[in-house]
Amino acid sequence: MKILYINVLYSPYVAGGAEISLKLIVESMQARGHDVAVLSLAPREGIHSEQVDGVRVYRAGLRNYYWPFSQERPGAFRRLAWHLRDRYNAAIGSDIEHVLQIERPDVVSCHNLVGWSVAVWDEVARANIPFVQVLHDMYLMCANSNMYKEEGVCHGQCFRCRVLRTGHERRSLQASAVVGISRNILDRFTAAGYFAGVPRHVIYNARRIPTASGTRKREPGSPLKIGYIGTLSLIKGVEWLITQFRKSRIEGSLHIAGRGQAEYVRHLENLVATDPRITFAGYVDAADFYAGIDLLVVPSCWEEPLGMVAVEGLANNLPVIASNRGGLPETVIHGVNGLLCEPNEPDSLGEALTTLWQDNVLYNQLSQCARQSIAPLLNPDRMAGEYEAVLQAAIKK
Fold it and tell me: What's the confidence (pLDDT) of residue 156?
């Protein structure tokens, strides 16, 4: 097959787990003998091509008011103007058409379309090329991609998102297939009427994670090293974790790794200024971070589509405490490899932390099961084979 992958970013530019997963998919498909290319966005004008680890990559200049992947937050008016254009960015259609004419793919695999907009679907359909849409987040339903506001999870589209996503449901019917990276995210779209009648699949992301040295074992009364790694933002629940840890009487420490918008990071640092048990590590090597903690917490307040950081922790033999939301319960199994807590019951997180500090027998059981419980997600060949079957079926449809 000749496959063109379209995503907002591509290596070495990474905004989240979608880019990490996409690179693994692309390289795995190329290793299987398929002819692959990637089309992504860049802050500079024009279309430029390069080779990234042996893969052809096209980068088209974003045709919108500003580059959204910076630490600065534009004013409300500029953000609204950006989202209005991103509702259907017809201006970028010529770039898509140009690359389609060069590559002439058998099938297109669409991923995160921030900046591209669903104009991609129309251009690919106009070229009479089948396409598969992979759902990594809620962008196609929500301008902020997360269906979350400060007051909590959105249980339906707000007025703003209904306006900014007018026509998306209808255009989604053009897809030859749709893939959710979890059952949860696929069900949320289909329940909203998207991709009606389109073949549906769930394909869990994979990671290559070397076997960690031995399971973790705790002795009664030993201090507990708790870790969080990821984006520092409200929806990720970092503030909830800090609050619950400070309320608890756990003997141990909390280590927070990752980056976020400067203003919010300063807010978090001010919260813990007088607590020497809590440290901010900034950007770190994930493998080194996992090796230095006893327990990973993924306290997401939004419905995390899958939460690969939880998979990474489990692969490193760490018990994981995670929110009982989104795709997280599809990997973190309560009482088997970790514990689930409820964001609507704030103290449930503190109780889970205390349980794994006090109950070393339970901790050791969870650690022993951790890596084995997510073994299929550590097999990139499994993921590539499942995508290969979906793409081949799309061509034959």
Answer: 87
Helix (H, G, I), strand (E, B), or coil: what is residue 36?
strand
Q: Which of 111, 87, 90 has the alpha carbon at shortest distance from 160?
A: 87
Question: Do 61 and 42 touch, CB atoms closer than 8 A?
Answer: yes
List for the chain the helix, strand, coil content (%; round to 5): 40, 20, 40
What is the homologous superfamily of the domain 224-377 according to CATH?
Glycogen Phosphorylase B; (3.40.50.2000)
Report pLDDT digits (tens) over 65-99.
999 987 777 898 999 999 999 999 999 999 999 99
**Gap between the Cα atoms of 255 and 247, Å rounded:** 16
pTM for the model stands at 0.93
- The Cα–Cα gap between 2 and 137 comes to 26
| Per-domain residue ranges of the chain | 2-206+379-396, 224-377
If one looks up domain 2-206+379-396 in CATH, what number appears? Answer: 3.40.50.2000
Structural tokens at position 173: 């019917």
- The answer to whether 2-206+379-396 and 224-377 have equal CATH topology is yes
Q: What residue spans of the chain are helical by DSSP H? A: 17-31, 76-87, 93-103, 119-126, 159-164, 168-171, 183-191, 238-247, 262-271, 286-291, 308-315, 347-358, 360-373, 380-396
* Longest CA–CA separation in the chain, Å: 65
Beta bridge pairs of residue 320: 296, 338
The pLDDT confidence band at residue 54, using thresholds 50, 70 and 90, is very high
pLDDT at 135: 98
Mean pLDDT of the chain: 94
CB 150 within 8 Å of CB 96: no
Token readout for 6 is 């379209």
The residue among 324, 310, 285, 325 whose CA lies nearest residue 366 is 310
C-alpha to C-alpha distances, 312 to 213, 293, 377, nearest whole angstrom: 14, 13, 10
Tokens 């061509």 — which residue? 395
Residue 260 has pLDDT above 90, yes or no: no
Q: Which long-range contacts (CB under 8 A, 24 or more apart) does 88-94 make?
A: 88/117, 88/118, 88/119, 88/167, 89/63, 89/64, 89/115, 89/116, 89/117, 89/119, 90/119, 91/63, 92/60, 92/62, 92/63, 92/116, 92/117, 92/119, 93/119, 93/122, 93/123
